[in-house]
Each structure stands twice: as structure tokens, then as C-alpha cells.
Specification:
Layout: E1 40-49, E2 58-66, E3 69-74, E4 83-86, E5 90-94, E6 96-101, H1 117-125, H2 134-150, E7 153-160, H3 166-179, E8 182-188, H4 208-216, E9 226-231, H5 234-237, H6 240-253, E10 257-261, H7 271-277, E11 285-289, H8 295-303, E12 307-310, H9 312-318, H10 325-330, E13 336-337, H11 349-372, H12 383-389, H13 392-397, E14 415-419, H14 431-438, E15 444-449, E16 452-456, E17 459-460, H15 465-480
Parallel strand pairs: 1-4, 1-5, 6-7, 7-8, 8-9, 9-10, 10-11, 11-12, 12-13
Antiparallel strand pairs: 1-2, 2-3, 5-14, 14-15, 15-16, 16-17
Helix pairs in contact: 2-3, 2-15, 11-12, 12-14
Bound molecules: zinc ion (ZN).
Length: 487
């Protein structure tokens, strides 16, 4: 049963410590409302799923938002100058954190839906990716990030590995910034087939000059909703020399380094051991997928505090193998969750959480039948855990658990208001079960990021949606047209 303490608390003055691995974490614009919005907002009389066991998982409460942060969560709050937001019949949950997505592929929606990983590498990375101009990256990132907000994601880890030029990179960041999402931009490099005389991408170190440029310009703290990470190749996709260089680069700049692990044979099979011996592994390292890591490797990496991003739907369809969710749980760890790619999958993080939960239950149920000839007495994973993966685990992956991931006074007011009065949610008998099993996009009534509405009354507040969709279509048709697959 969830902890249902009734009275809770908060400190309006509560300050959060700076994020450990984020370089863009200074207080500033993110804590200032737009001129048209009130500085104080009060969500009145909602069911609040806090995901903070210290204050109670589920409360009937008011939430006071001040200066972009959650100021107080309590059964009744008096705030005469606050804008009142009616929470009756609504469930408020922490903004979801999408811990892995190649947002640049938004204009390719659906093209990869029938492709395995090998086809995807050939058709997307060695093919379609090479046709992207900066404006294609921009519109994909803008539309993809807006869609994330629409679906209840407030923090997006944009794992951007199609940056052949600084202009592409800047366009990607422009798209994220314009959407209003809280974005962790993970800068990566493209993976084309080499032309004669060119090196293979696995032999090319991450460009130091770009990291220096980005930390000095786009990620200098002026927009605290943006932070930088490195999307590197890692030992599975690069030489040892490149891996050593890239891990050391991330460490030097204090950035989270994220890399895919799995999908075919590793480029450097003993790479992880060598990186470990060089002291380059630790909490700042994030592994995506990780399906083929040995039990010993996984246990050691968990001990080192490394994080893991699971993309359950993609891992199931592209051929990666079963998600490592259950293996992590046995080690006392938990995965962050990601959509991965909208070129083949839905972008809705509620769907991702359900996929991760039920995939693991299926594996556990099958194991039980095999081991003792019977299904388990009860579900091996509770619904709360799935919501934890989509919120707090993502915050931990970014080193931002002191700012994001739960409805806790002092944290950023990144909140999703779900309309639970609708047909698909009534009656709400157990709010966490309802949120995890029943939520659809239709229920995402409002989304606040740093206390500012980005979606309200069921509508995104982005003003130029028609232009955005027109440009997205134009990009997608031009690029996918190269495959001759358009109908
Ligand atoms: Zn990926």
C-alpha cells in the first residue's frame, strides 16, 4: 500500500543544491514566470502523487508554486495573491523524464517501424541521417519536444547524434529551447559510412572544440532549463583510444557521458575493464540498453553508481534483447526510461512506463512457470515502480535528483495535471494504479515546467503549431523521399 500521510509541509525558502553533473544549473530565468503569468500559483484540492515517500506518496492536497519552484504541499494553503488552479477531479504527478530520445528523427516518424536494428543502422544512420540539413534538425527537435510536453514529459534527454556541423548542433538546441521543455542536450556525432580516405566513425574522437564551444555559449547558465551531456560511442562502438579520450573529456568538463551498449559484437570487447582500470567509470556514466552486459559487469557498474536507460519498446522490436529492468532490480537498482526513436515508436512516456512494467512482469511470470510450474502469487513489480522509473530514476540519471523527479517542496515545479474525471479513468480507486494503467494523452490537461504553463486546458500553448507541422512534413517528405517509400 502506498504511504498515505495526510499532513505535509514545505519550506518556501527551501533552496536546492546545484546539480552534480549539470553545467547549466544557476538560478535565473527558469524561476521567473512569463510576464503574463502569476508569480504564485495554487493548485487547489487535487489528488497529488508526490513520488516522495518522505511526505507520502498520495495526498489530497494543495500545491503552492512560487518562483518556479514547489513551495508548499499541504492539505490547505492560504495564498490570497496566488492564481488558483482548480484541482478537483485531477491527479497531479511529477513531470515525466524521458531519459533517452533521438529527437532529430521526429520528421521520420514511422519509417523504421518494420526495421530491425541492422536495417535501422543501414537505412537511417548510413542513409537518411546524411540528408539532414540544420533546418531539418531544428524542426524535428521543436516538434518532438512539443510532443513530449503534450504527452506529459517535462525533461527530455535529447541524445543527438546527427551533428555533422556546429550549425546542425545549434539548430537542434534552438528547437529544444523554443519548445519550452527542460532539455538535457546530449551532443553526439554522426555515423555515416566513410567515404574513400575518411576514417570510420569508431575511430573519431568526440570533438573537444565543440564541447568547449557549447559550454562557453549555449550552456553557459543563461538558460537553466538547458543542460549539456555527451552522447559518446563508448567501447561498444569505438576503439579503445577513442573511448579513453571521450570518457576523459566528459570527466574533465563534469558532464554526464551516455553511450549505447549492445547490438552486434563490440568494437572493443575488453573496453569496460580498461576504462575501469583507468578510473573513468562512476556516477556520471550512463549506459543505454546494456542487454548484453554480463551479470558481473552489471553488478560492478551498479556498485559504481552508474545509471542505465532502458528503452523497452525499441529493445523488443529491434532485436536488442530483453530489457535489463529485472536484472537491475535484483541488484537494488532501477532503470531510467526512454522513448529512443519516434522513427519507429510512440513518443508517449506513459506508454513507455507501461511497456517496461509489463515486459518485466511477463519475464518474471514466465520464469516462475518454468521454475515452479505456477504463476507467481502476486505481481513481481508494483505500478509505483514504473512511475518511479519515469520520474526519479531519470532525475538520478542526470544527477538532478535534488531538483527534479518528485513533488517535493524546494524542487522545480515541473508538474503534470491529469484530468481524472474522464471516462477512461473513473472511478479512481487507487491513484497510482490509475495513473500507470489508464493514463492517455487525452488526460494530460496541463503541463507546467519551472512553474510555467506549457500546456493548459488540454492545449499546448506553443503559438505557431501550424507552421511547425508544415515544416515538419516538408522535412520528412524530402528526406524519406530519398528512400522511395512515400505513398
Ligand atoms: Zn538510442
Amino acid at each position: 500500500m502506498p504511504n498515505r500521510r495526510a499532513f505535509i509541509l514545505g519550506s518556501i525558502a527551501a533552496a536546492t543544491a546545484p546539480a552534480i553533473f549539470s553545467r547549466a544549473n544557476a538560478a535565473g530565468p527558469e524561476n521567473s514566470p512569463r510576464p503574463s503569468e502569476s508569480a504564485q500559483k495554487l493548485i487547489r484540492g487535487a489528488t497529488v502523487v508526490t513520488m516522495d515517500p518522505k511526505i507520502g506518496d498520495v495526498l489530497r492536497a494543495d500545491i503552492l508554486i512560487e518562483g518556479g519552484r514547489i513551495a508548499v504541499v499541504a492539505p490547505h494553503i492560504d495564498a490570497p495573491s496566488a492564481e488558483i488552479i482548480d484541482g478537483t477531479g485531477r491527479i497531479v504527478v511529477p513531470g515525466l523524464i524521458n531519459a533517452h530520445m533521438h529527437t532529430w528523427q521526429t520528421c521520420l516518424r514511422g519509417v523504421a517501424a518494420n526495421w530491425t536494428l541492422l536495417e535501422y543502422f543501414r537505412q537511417v544512420h548510413a542513409g537518411l541521417a546524411t540528408l539532414f540539413k540544420p533546418e531539418d534538425i531544428y524542426i524535428s527537435n521543436l516538434a518532438g519536444a512539443l510532443n513530449q510536453i503534450n504527452c506529459g514529459t517535462t525533461t527530455l534527454v535529447d541524445w543527438c547524434h546527427n551533428n555533422p556541423t556546429p550549425a546542425h548542433t545549434d539548430a537542434a538546441i534552438d528547437g529544444l529551447e523554443e519548445s519550452g521543455i527542460r532539455a538535457a542536450f546530449f551532443h553526439g556525432s554522426p555515423k555515416p559510412d566513410p567515404k574513400p580516405g575518411q576514417k570510420h566513425f569508431s575511430e573519431i574522437p568526440h570533438p573537444r572544440s565543440e564541447v568547449e564551444r557549447l559550454t562557453a555559449s549555449r550552456f553557459n547558465g543563461k538558460n537553466p532549463q538547458l543542460s549539456l551531456g555527451l552522447a559518446i560511442l563508448g567501447p561498444h562502438y569505438s576503439t579503445l583510444e577513442v573511448s579513453m579520450h571521450d570518457f576523459a573529456l566528459a570527466k574533465e568538463f563534469g558532464l554526464v557521458a551516455s553511450m549505447h551498449q549492445g547490438g552486434g559484437p563490440a568494437k572493443t570487447p575488453d573496453g569496460w575493464e580498461k576504462l575501469d582500470a583507468a578510473g573513468l567509470l562512476g556516477r556520471q556514466i550512463n549506459i543505454v540498453h546494456g542487454n548484453n552486459l554480463s551479470d558481473a559487469q552489471l553488478a560492478h557498474f551498479v556498485d559504481l553508481g552508474m545509471s542505465f536507460s532502458v528503452a523497452p519498446e525499441n529493445e523488443m522490436i529491434q532485436g536488442h534483447g530483453y530489457p535489463i529492468t529485472g536484472r537491475l532490480r535484483k541488484l537494488g537498482a532501477s532503470p531510467a526510461l526512454g522513448v529512443d526513436l519516434e522513427s519507429g515508436l510512440s513518443g508517449d512516456m506513459f506508454t513507455v512506463a507501461r511497456m517496461a512494467l509489463n515486459m518485466q512482469r511477463a519475464l518474471d511470470n514466465a520464469a516462475s512457470r518454468a521454475e515452479r510450474g505456477a504463476i507467481p502469487d502476486t505481481s513481481s513489480v508494483r505500478t509505483r515502480e514504473a512511475l518511479e522509473w519515469a520520474t526519479m530514476s531519470g532525475a538520478r540519471m542526470l544527477g538532478m535528483e535534488d531538483r527534479l523527479g518528485s513533488i517535493t517542496p524546494g524542487k522545480q515545479a515541473d508538474l503534470v495535471i491529469l484530468d481524472a474525471r474522464l471516462l477512461n479513468m473513473q472511478p479512481v480507486l487507487d491513484p497510482i494504479n490509475t495513473v500507470v494503467t489508464q493514463t492517455g494523452i487525452v488526460n494530460v490537461e496541463a503541463v507546467l515546467i519551472a512553474g510555467q504553463f506549457r500546456k493548459r486546458d488540454g492545449r499546448l500553448l506553443y503559438p505557431r503549431m501550424e507552421e511547425c507541422l508544415e515544416q515538419l512534413n516538408k522535412s520528412g517528405r524530402r528526406i524519406a523521399g530519398a528512400l522511395g517509400i512515400l505513398t
